[in-house]
Here is the input.
Amino acid sequence: MRMAKVSDQEILYGLMSVFRSKGYDGASLNELAEATGLKKASLYHRFPGGKKEMTDAVLDFMEAWINEKVYKVLSNAELPPQQRLKDALHNIGEVYGHGTKVCLYRSLSMDTGMSLFGNKIEQGIGQWLESFSIMGEAVGKDSETAMQLAKQSFIEVQGSLVLSKAMGNTEPFAETLQNIERRYTA
Here is the structure.
């Protein structure tokens, strides 16, 4: 009997879930294979470069996601700024499981992960900051204030994820998204 085919997206989500929870150093090949629904040999066939190649693929996937679901949304001048912000914050809520999932960048910025993937992490965070800076300027902030708001938004989302995890309650994350929306629309 032939096994069901696992889509690339399913594989990347599976890998991402392990890297989010274990980081780079803590993720074992067994856990990565189990999370993707593939056998270890099949996983290595898809990613001959091993765990590093898997992580690179997940980071590329995350960068593309941020570009599509945050950057393009926040910079879409065809929509009113309030709608762009609402849509982007909804997407951010989705990628973080509304406060139940830790940030991939945070997990990979520990130990070996930062030395191997620091440039990609920096690029992803830079894309986030640029996106929210565009939003700040769209609502009338000067470029310096817009960048400060962007940085504060990133810091608050990350902090709220840690707090939500520690408390076993997603309310801090939900409140943070609401506060960001209020800050930009006030």
User: Anything to note?
Assistant: Residues 52-185 form a domain with the Tetracycline Repressor; domain 2 fold (CATH 1.10.357.10).
